[in-house]
Amino acid sequence: MITNIISSLNLISHPEGGWYRETWRAAETIPAAGLPERFAGERSFATSIYFLLTSDTFSALHRIKSDEQWHFYSGSGLTIHVIHPDGQYEQLRLGADLESGESYQTVVPHSCWFGATVDVPDSYALVGCTVAPGFDFADFELADRALLLREFPPHEELITRLTRTA
User: Fold this and answer.
1) How many whole angstroms separate alpha carbon 64 and alpha carbon 112?
2) In angstroms, rounded to a whole number, what is the distance separating the alpha carbons of residues 126 and 118?
3) Do residues 55 and 120 lie in contact, with contact meaning Cβ atoms separated by under 8 Å?
4) Rounded distance, CA 14 to CA 124, Å?
5) In this predicted structure, what is the pLDDT of residue 83?
6) 10, 17, 18, 58: least CB-packed within 10 angstroms?
7) Residue 42 burial by CB count (10 A; 0-12/13-18/19+): exposed, middle or buried?
């Protein structure tokens, strides 16, 4: 099933883990002068991707300079683990089980560290992510475990579990 989804949607490996494919990039752009200072140049109005994650991997902690809206499509629910700039930890649950607190959509605010895990063993989650202003790899920062542990020591277990570099 998972290999069928990867093949059918033409997904490729993502640096944070999982598989993805950009499905849309707005043709129009916002000039650098119209964006907050955290952006180094113009950006598309918005972008969107498919993102597939399996229970035997994880989306490593990373942050981007834009807000990112997640949309649930199929599979099991997943948890997006968010560390806000002030150190507050938040779990955002995405999925179809509304009675257990999952939601079909959620938003990760810009500049937060976040990663994701699939909630059900031997399963997957197929989601979409919409980023505004549009995603650019220049705005993507994969977490360095040692630096994050120094900045957020109360979250040692999460940081150790959701990073790939020591």
Assistant:
1) 7
2) 10
3) yes
4) 15
5) 98
6) 10
7) middle
Residue 166 has pLDDT above 70, yes or no: no
The verdict on whether omega for the bond into residue 133 sits within 30 degrees of 0, i.e. cis, is yes
18: left (phi over 0), alpha (psi -120 to 50) or beta: left
Can you point out the beta strands (E) in the chain? 12-13, 19-25, 29-30, 43-44, 47-54, 59-63, 67-75, 78-83, 89-94, 105-108, 113-118, 124-132, 141-142
Are the CB atoms for 66 and 81 separated by under 8 Å? no
Kindly report the average pLDDT of the chain as a whole number: 97
CA distance 38 to 56: 34
Please give the Cα distance from 2 to 75 (Å, whole number). Answer: 10
Is there a contact between 157 and 164 (Cβ–Cβ < 8 Å)? no
Contact between residue 76 and residue 95 where contact means Cβ atoms under 8 Å apart: yes
pTM of the model: 0.95
Asked whether 68 and 113 are in contact (CB, 8 A), the reply is no
A 10 A CB-CB count for 74 gives 13
